[in-house]
């Protein structure tokens, strides 16, 4: 690990808005705030929204600035990246922001049933070769159900046609309530002002994708508690710019 990363990790240990519970420590370091985020950290009764795979945390911070009456928690395993957003939130005095450094596979260990009202997935790795690692797969949707309120809203913002198309199929085959969808966010007319304001927040990676001429895709859907979730049995073209020497098509494993 580079000296810069070591310094950031050391500084993160002093941040009051960061909680670090990766796989390597969770079994030996009990997390006592599950179900108590509002009482023990935020000290209010406002809704809680997570950004999963928050990277540098800039989307989490910008959402918190836009909505001071909502609590936002950025989640990622990459602490050196998260350091930037956590430090920014502290410097700006944002009391409605926290960061959780952990593996998203165990995200349900940190939140109690109905404790969370919404999720943001911003520029997640499409994981074209492993369905179980896609953050919109049924593997993860089942975990989100364990702490998300009934019909809580899941937002997906991505440059990946593969992940966007895959998620469309997941929504369709499971008859989830699709609230909005566009495959070209910044060239879509008729978006209401509030939504346009939120979606105009650009992450570090989004700026890179836009500079490369890639379309930004966005959808949001409601995730109900009831019903059995199934994987779509479809083939989806791979993202060519991500898959240089791979086959052009992939067969999705329908296993749960």
Automatic annotation (TrEMBL):
- Key words of the record: Methyltransferase, S-adenosyl-L-methionine, Transferase, tRNA processing
- Tell me one Pfam family matched here: Methyltransf_4
Residues annotated as binding S-adenosyl-L-methionine = 51, 76, 103, 125
Annotated InterPro entries: SAM-dependent_MTases_sf, tRNA_(Gua-N-7)_MeTrfase_Trmb, tRNA_methyltr_TrmB_bact
Organism, scientific name: Hoylesella shahii DSM 15611 = JCM 12083
Q: What is its EC number?
A: 2.1.1.33
Q: Is the Transferase keyword given for this protein? A: yes
HAMAP family xrefs: tRNA_methyltr_TrmB
What GO cellular component is one of the record's annotations?
tRNA methyltransferase complex
So where does substrate get bound? 129, 159, 203-206
The record's catalysed reaction(s) read: guanosine(46) in tRNA + S-adenosyl-L-methionine = N(7)-methylguanosine(46) in tRNA + S-adenosyl-L-homocysteine
What name appears for this protein in its UniProt entry? tRNA (guanine-N(7)-)-methyltransferase
Tell me the route in metabolism or biology where this protein functions: tRNA modification; N(7)-methylguanine-tRNA biosynthesis
State the superkingdom: Bacteria
The broad enzyme category this protein falls into is transferase
**Alphabetized GO MF terms:** tRNA (guanine(46)-N7)-methyltransferase activity
Function as written in the Swiss-Prot or TrEMBL entry: Catalyzes the formation of N(7)-methylguanine at position 46 (m7G46) in tRNA.
